[in-house]
Design a protein that fits this description.
The protein is an all-alpha fold. It has three helices and no strands. It has two domains: about 40 residues; about 55 residues, no CATH class.
Length: about 110
């Protein structure tokens, strides 16, 4: 198989998979909500509360991880290892801190 043909097929398959997952998610969510409305559940229960603190802390964790990865790279650690590990480490730490903050509020 030609390399270009293979690349096109992989791209089409990836797009189809993403579209399929999104379609199944949206259809099942719609069916669930229709069923809940038929049973008399309040529509306000469908609204999710925004979590700007969670997303903000995650973004800060990614930024700190990127900086820490750059520092490790300058000190001789392999580039891919330093960036990926530090981004995941600090993102995880930020989510744990978020959990601890929200747990004490409730």
């Amino acid at each position: 198989m030609d390399e270009i043909t293979r690349d096109c097929l992989v791209s089409i398959a990836a797009f189809a998979a993403i579209f399929g997952i999104a379609y199944i998610y949206l259809v099942s969510r719609h069916r669930e909500r229709i069923t809940m409305l038929e049973r008399g559940v309040d529509p306000k229960s469908f609204q999710k509360e925004e979590q700007p603190l969670k997303y903000g802390m995650m973004s800060i964790g990614i930024a700190i991880g990127t900086v820490a990865g750059g520092i490790l790279k300058m000190n001789g650690v392999e580039r891919n290892t330093s960036y990926i590990s530090m981004i995941f480490l600090f993102s995880g730490i930020s989510l744990v801190i978020y959990h601890l903050l929200t747990r004490t509020r409730k």
